[in-house]
Amino acid sequence: MGNGIICIHTEKTIREERLIKYRNQPELATQDMENFAQILKNNTLKMGGVVIDSSIKKTEDIAKL
Predict the structure, then answer these.
(1) Which residue of 16, 17, 33, 48 has the fewest CB atoms within a 10 Å radius of its CB?
(2) What are residue 30's phi and psi, to 5 degrees?
(3) For 40, left (φ over 0), alpha (ψ -120 to 50), or beta?
(4) Taking 70 as the threshold, does the pLDDT of residue 1 lie above it?
(5) 3-52, pLDDT tens digit by residue?
(6) CA–CA distance, 14 with 30 (Å, rounded to integer)
(7) Confidence class of residue 2 from pLDDT cuts 50, 70 and 90?
């Protein structure tokens, strides 16, 4: 079992689509956001946490896990 750290991650193209199309926040679809997402994912793994890939599931379905 990990140390309780969980990172919900999605691929760049899907994250950008969600930000632009569904959240109406295109200003967040930047390279800085991608860099930050990768840092969070990598640090979670380094610290023994769990990364949940939300690329193929709806947010509502992820919440049910």
Answers:
(1) 48
(2) -125, 170
(3) alpha
(4) no
(5) 799 999 999 999 999 999 999 999 999 999 999 999 999 999 999 999 99
(6) 13
(7) low
**Angular region, 51: left φ>0, alpha ψ -120 to 50, beta rest:** beta
Place of tokens 């896990």: 65
Contacts of 33 (CB under 8 A, 6+ apart): 15, 19
Amino acid at position 29, single letter: A
Query: Distance between CA atoms of 57 and 59, rounded to whole angstroms?
Result: 6
Cα separation, 1 vs 23, in Å, equals: 34
Q: How many CA atoms lie within 13 A of 37 on its CB side?
A: 19
Helix (H, G, I), strand (E, B) or coil at 50: strand
Residue 65 has a pLDDT of 64
Would you state the pLDDT for residue 63? 72
